[in-house]
Please model this.
Amino acid sequence: MKIGDVFFKEQEIRITRGKGGKARRAPIQQTCAKVIRRYLDIRGDLETDALFVNMNNEKISTRALQEKMHDYGLASSINGVRVSPHTFRHTMAKFYILNGGDPFTLRRILGHATLKMVEYYVELFSSDIKQQHKKYSPVENMKRII
Model:
């Protein structure tokens, strides 16, 4: 990502090489935008337009980012799941659905051409969805009127 790929006013980022090599824009929330702004203030002006840089102020490679995430997972004693950008993507999709997000919007956020992959996420997390439904079902939570 480049600094110019972050659109603070629109609260979006441009993903230039997404799945299938397609470019798209994805929303970012205010909290994320604040963190990026703070990071850019600390990062300062550099010759590179890369958003994320290493200690030598050079563009960080995809592999280096993956390795750092893995290391942070180990340091945090996260076991039983691979800590990676792809896992973060799956986790975001899971919680988006569990929090009531609709699959059509999720499809666009993730950059999928069809709903097929989103259907996979919904199926993958169907037991979680059933638990959420039971917990928040209006019928199950109605108080008896006497």
Q: What stands out?
A: Residues 30-43 form the longest helix (14 residues). The chain has a mean pLDDT of 85. The first strand starts at residue 6 and ends at 7. Residues 135 and 141 are 8 Å apart (CA to CA).
